[in-house]
Amino acid sequence: MDIIKILPKHVSNQIAAGEVIQRPASAVKEMLENSLDAGCTEIKLIIKNAGKKLIQVVDNGCGMSKSDVKKCFIRHATSKIENAQDLFNITTMGFRGEAMSSIAAIAQVEINTKLTNQETGTYLRNEGGKIYELKESSTTNGTSIKVKNIFYNVPARRNFLKSENVEMRHITEEFTKIALANPNIKMQLFHDSKELFHLPISNFKKRIINLFGNKKNESLVPVSEETSIIELSGFIGKPETAKKTRGEQYFFVNGRYIKHHYLQHAVVKAFEDLIPSKYYPSHFINLKINPKLIDINIHPTKHEIKFEDEKAIYAIIRATIKRSLGIFNIAPSLDFSKENAFELDFKNIENTNFKQPTIKIDKNYNPFDHKKNNDQNKTQNKLDVNTNPLFDDINLSENLNVPFQIGNQFIVIAIKDGIKIIHQRRAHKRILFEYYTNSLKHKNGKSQKLLFPKSIELNLKEISLVENLKKELKSLGFIFKLKKQNMEISAMPAECREDNIQEILEEILHQAQNDIEIEINQTQKIAKSLANSLAISNSKQLKIEEINSLYNELLKCKVSNICPSGKSIIKNFKIEDLKKYF
Ligand code: ADP
Ligand code: MG
User: Fold this and answer.
1) Which pLDDT score is estimated for 190?
2) Which protein residue's CA is at the shortest distance from atom 13 of ligand 1?
3) Candidates 79, 92, 102: which one to mutate for ligand 1, based on the most atoms within 8 Å of Cβ?
4) CATH class label, 9-201
5) Which helix (DSSP H) or strand (DSSP E) does residue 315 occupy?
6) Residues surrounding ion ligand 2 at CB below 5 Å
7) Order of strands across the sheet with 249-253?
8) CATH class of 206-327
């Protein structure tokens, strides 16, 4: 008996849709790209309920004719390539002809569009891939596409969408990538009637600042290089602004955002020794290359591309950034970019006190100690193991010895049958971790009021993270107000230092964002971040009282042998072991 059937079109389209449209943000990306390909100069992105209810893109591009509007929903229908040869010379964002058919298969779509030279336009309504209405309409030049109730007919997918905060973060990220790649296009983003971004036509630098806030202005260093295979331009962030949060790492190739681990590595290498490990330098780099020398066909969402000469491009990126960092180190206040919007006021320059440039240096970082650096790099998400307290064998009343410090980093204590060596920073981390876990549980973190409220500038992604963590931050002792791109802090946990606060918050946000999708166990992550930020260093001389207090507090911990990052706090040396040395 024959058992093979050809799937009906609407089913095969739904399956194909799964590849192209994973979440509202994927539809946003495809629709924005179509507007760009339509040659528009203005795009409005209107979102309701993080895209679950509505994603609307309005552009002033070329528009579509009545028969093209109908055709655009057919799979592999595209106006952008004609034959296989064209695949090797792609200059448009789209070319696979899959997005519109995929979107229409899983949503209710309304299009209103008009060709520039026509009097009237076309209105079309499509649900789940079927056209329900097609009529003449009076509309402006360009195209407006509404995508409503995404995945309404694929409940399994709709139910698996994340919280509105998470979905909106993904949408904002897609918007940001396209906005960065196209500063020559006016772009706006509205969410639930609130305008989140208003980006006028500008140059690349201003676009970055409009997206990430004014504070970026001082920290951007220009990079540029022209070679026979590639043209490189853009900006890198100064070393001291490197963050623990990944996120401001952007590569664009011929105006298309790409993810490329190998090239990413070239940037990190260029910053080697200037920033501590686990910090990520921000970069906004445009690469222009002959389209014949790249293959953008290897991934359905076209985020990943292949270069013919990757090694040479790696070397160019690394060398160009290194050179710019060199110039920056010698003359940090000079910015040779030609943009005049942020030029220094030369008339007042003589009266200005110039600040010496500062560079954040990890004092514990030894570039020659690869083993140690690799250890430091390992992710710290291991669960606590071996929760038996190691101090069981200490009989405190018998133990008349006092702990003392060696090498400004270890605490040594003699016990009945040997010695214990305690790693001071890890011990302190454990103590703080348990303290903050408790504060978060009982919502009783001690707070200290700041004399003057401290304003910390955050980008939109960070603001939404802070919103997610509001409850936890308050439990710890933070009191703050969120403004458009600012967090105004009026009180902070009693143990924090004011000059440290930005770093502490960055660490918390970094940890929280590490698992953007996993919204569990934020408490542990935050407690860990605070412990990491506030624990004493590995080279701090401690007073006798401090040694005693650290030792006694460690004894009180539920788990005293493993620090929150999963590393050992204590090593035992039994007398038997010591004998072996003699
Ligand atoms: P692709 O972009 O790969 O060609 P899509 O499925 O994204 O495929 O779009 C199909 C076609 O619909 C495009 O080739 C284009 O002709 C038309 N189209 C889609 N969106 C727009 C728009 N905003 N303005 C003008 N034409 C559009
Ligand atoms: Mg497209």
Assistant:
1) 96
2) 78
3) 79
4) alpha beta
5) helix 310-330
6) 34, 94, 99
7) 220-226, 231-237, 283-288, 249-253, 256-258
8) alpha beta
